[in-house]
Write a structure and sequence with these properties.
The protein is 82% helix and 0% strand. Helix 1 packs parallel to helix 3. The longest helix has 28 residues.
């Protein structure tokens, strides 16, 4: 796998993490707001699903990150700090 391709994959995963973080924040704000228990339960399930998805994407991103490149680690840390992880 070429370095450019790997870097592109990592960028795509970072974008996915940012999208998941935004969606998770949206659902977190809606938890318990409805008078309907069924709606609240559905929102809790969606919120938890997004949290699990974030964890899985983060795991894949960690596996794809080069172990010996400190520049990439700084880039990764900055991207994660930007989205709040």
């Amino acid at each position: 796998m070429s370095d450019e391709y790997a870097h592109g994959r990592r960028d795509g995963l970072r974008l996915a993490l940012a999208i998941l973080a935004a969606e998770e924040a949206k659902w977190a704000a809606l938890l318990g707001e409805s008078a309907s228990w069924r709606t609240n339960a559905t929102r809790e399930v969606r919120h938890k699903t997004l949290q699990v998805a974030q964890t899985r994407v983060q795991t894949v991103l960690n596996r794809l990150s080069p172990k010996d490149d400190t520049g990439s680690n700084a880039e990764l840390s900055a991207a994660l700090a930007k989205i709040g992880l």
